[in-house]
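Design job #97: recover the sequence.
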């Protein structure tokens, strides 16, 4: 049996200026979002905005997670970051990866962007957020509720925009960070950049390795008992190896910034099977290879008095290969499985978006107009006809009116033509009222929609275990969303106080679901089902005093029960799940030392499903808690940083599901424990940053 010894090597991803940023934070206002332990309230946001604005001035309610908080968590990918967020639920599949649910709605309705470019490659409707690394991320902006006017399909439950680092603050920058975790994670990333005059070049790369984890391994440092060969080759969390390479070039004019970014990503998941047969000489192993290649040209700036321009053109490709081999465990040789066990799926997306807006300071009226083009191509033997294309061509516009300094009215409209379905007209309305400084009241109505994807329309999968076909008659999902929030900020005797209360209601019609459509043939297809609804309320309270910041958050989310219809049923219309979050951070400036605690409690999640006899029974996912502790120390003007800590303090792994073995009505029923996280682990890390100022170019450092 392989044992994992706690490494003495050091690792982690920590921002070099963490201490300075934190000091600035505690001297300023404390944000309503708990994660803003390291987030300044005056952070600039760009998602869905006419021009970059401070977060508190945006008409939408935008959460910002900056690089200081990401570093303090020891987060390696988007999954790690979102684990601590309110109204966000993470699910784990050993093969499909990590998916996200927002506002009680599945990740199929969550739009994920990188620098405004949509991320493609959904498996079972979800983006694997563990593939989105954060070592080169400046901040993450989250908007709950539909953003369909700006970003079109999939932006029904919310939008997550990952903003990568695009500029340099010095003439030359270079750095390396390593991360090691006792469950078998070994990561390293590096970055080098040069800023010369109007030009800047940044090249970065990373290798992340995880050799798999299983609950039976535990912290087995002294167990030298003999084990049967290959008795533990199959693991609950599969081994994974990832490579990233990123290139960024910026050219700055007086008012315009031109940027090219290219990203390459590949990973390999090894899903080993248990020994089979009477003697256990053979096993079936599956290999899942993913390759992403992203290219984008971005232009941002101003033109004339008060005019803002934004343009992007991007081409993204995604390929996923699945290969099965039969391994002879006595010789170590592999033999390919049957042709039906091998599969390659290719998806490509061309996206172009441009806006022209006017937003001059002191003017009551601001507006913008733009277009959004998305052409998606799917290729593979499980796509009807082998190749399918879907084109979406949209025009949108919005206007913002300020009748007084304290009131903002914002309305938007989107019209689209789609080659596969009839797109609805999408409106939105936002209101922001500030009766006095420190008090903000926001309310919004948004129409959302989600277009059927290539897989849902044209999928064909037939083997001994599956009979799934697409449905080219599907209609897009549509939703009506209402949300409102009140936030209050005030300084009371050196205590920075911030309180926020927010609520939402989302009603979805024509929701797309995979269901049994032919019981005689046991055939499944995608259909438009009836309504689905979700609603909730949350509150966040943040306190900052000297070098201590404490934040508490709580939410209460209700999810609609599909079986609640009819007069004879006693099933409630909604099942509710409470959540609570506590974040603490304390700094010792003299020592350049920071201690942070991130904790989130998720109560039991009830629901209803049909058992094998067709009776409605209650299903429940047990409650669980995820908490992380990290300690950070820097030297040499923050150029050298070391961090260490413990993840998953309460050792949460699998969570029990009651009545899980019921008929789910889908091709893949849910049964057995739910995988939430790997067990308790220790991590340790080291980061080094080298900078060399170029005083001649100092005035041109930032656009």
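Job complete. Output follows.
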């Amino acid at each position: 049996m392989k044992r994992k010894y706690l490494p003495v090597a050091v690792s982690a991803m920590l921002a070099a200026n963490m201490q300075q940023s934190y000091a600035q934070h505690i001297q300023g206002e404390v944000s309503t979002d708990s994660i803003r332990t390291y987030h300044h309230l005056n952070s600039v946001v760009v998602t869905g905005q006419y021009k970059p604005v401070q977060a508190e001035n945006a008409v939408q309610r935008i959460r910002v997670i900056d690089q200081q908080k990401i570093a303090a968590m020891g987060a390696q990918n988007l999954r790690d970051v979102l684990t601590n967020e309110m109204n966000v639920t993470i699910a784990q599949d050993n093969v499909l990866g990590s998916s996200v649910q927002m506002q009680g709605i599945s990740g199929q309705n969550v739009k994920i962007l990188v620098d405004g470019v949509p991320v493609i490659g959904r498996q079972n409707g979800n983006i694997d957020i563990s593939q989105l690394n954060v070592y080169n991320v400046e901040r993450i902006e989250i908007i709950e509720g539909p953003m369909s006017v700006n970003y079109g399909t999939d932006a029904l439950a919310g939008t997550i925009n990952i903003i990568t680092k695009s500029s340099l603050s010095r003439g030359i920058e270079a750095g390396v960070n390593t991360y090691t975790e006792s469950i078998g994670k070994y990561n390293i990333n590096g970055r080098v950049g040069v800023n010369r005059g109007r030009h800047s070049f940044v090249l970065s790369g990373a290798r992340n390795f995880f050799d798999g984890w299983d609950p039976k391994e535990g912290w087995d440092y002294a167990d030298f008992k003999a084990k049967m060969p290959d008795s533990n080759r199959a693991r609950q969390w599969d081994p994974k190896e990832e490579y990233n390479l990123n290139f960024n070039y910026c050219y700055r004019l007086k008012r315009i910034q031109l940027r090219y970014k290219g990203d390459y990503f590949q990973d390999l998941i090894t899903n080993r099977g248990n020994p089979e047969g009477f003697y256990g000489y053979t096993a079936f192993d599956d290999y899942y290879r993913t390759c992403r290649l992203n290219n984008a040209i971005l232009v941002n700036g101003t033109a004339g008095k008060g005019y803002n321009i934004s343009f992007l053109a991007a081409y993204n490709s995604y390929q996923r290969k699945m290969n099965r081999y039969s391994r002879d465990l006595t010789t170590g040789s592999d033999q390919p499985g049957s042709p039906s066990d091998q599969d390659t799926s290719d998806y490509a997306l061309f996206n172009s978006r441009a806006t022209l807006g006017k937003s001059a300071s002191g003017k009551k009226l601001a507006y913008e107009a733009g277009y959004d083009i998305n052409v998606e191509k799917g290729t593979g033997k499980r796509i009807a006809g082998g190749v399918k294309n879907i084109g979406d061509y949209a025009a949108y516009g919005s206007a913002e009116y300020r009748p007084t300094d304290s009131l903002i009215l914002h309305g938007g409209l989107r019209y689209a033509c789609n080659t596969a379905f009839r797109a609805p007209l999408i409106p939105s309305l936002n209101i922001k009222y500030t009766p006095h400084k420190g008090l903000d009241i926001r309310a919004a109505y948004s129409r959302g929609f989600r277009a059927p994807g290539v897989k849902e329309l044209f999928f064909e999968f037939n083997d001994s275990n599956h009979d799934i076909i697409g449905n080219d008659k599907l209609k897009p999902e549509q939703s009506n969303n209402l949300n409102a929030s009140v936030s209050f900020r005030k300084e009371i005797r050196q205590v920075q106080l911030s309180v926020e209360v927010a609520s939402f209601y989302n009603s979805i019609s024509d929701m797309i679901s995979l269901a049994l459509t032919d019981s005689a043939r046991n055939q499944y297809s995608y259909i438009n089902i009836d309504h689905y609804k979700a609603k909730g309320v949350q509150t966040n309270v943040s306190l900052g005093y000297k070098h201590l910041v404490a934040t508490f958050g709580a939410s209460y989310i209700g999810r609609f029960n599909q079986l609640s219809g009819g007069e004879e049923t006693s099933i409630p219309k909604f099942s509710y799940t409470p959540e609570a979050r506590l974040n603490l951070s304390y700094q010792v400036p003299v020592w350049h030392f920071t201690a942070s605690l991130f904790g989130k409690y998720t109560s039991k999640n009830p629901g209803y499903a049909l058992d094998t006899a067709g009776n409605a029974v209650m299903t429940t996912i047990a409650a669980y808690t995820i908490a992380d502790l990290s300690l950070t120390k820097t030297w040499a003007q923050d150029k050298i940083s070391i961090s260490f800590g413990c993840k998953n303090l309460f050792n949460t792994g699998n969570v029990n599901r009651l009545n899980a073995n019921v008929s789910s009505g889908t091709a893949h029923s849910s049964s057995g424990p739910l995988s939430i996280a790997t067990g308790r682990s220790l991590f340790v890390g080291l980061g080094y940053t080298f900078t060399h100022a170029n005083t001649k170019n100092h005035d041109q450092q930032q656009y």
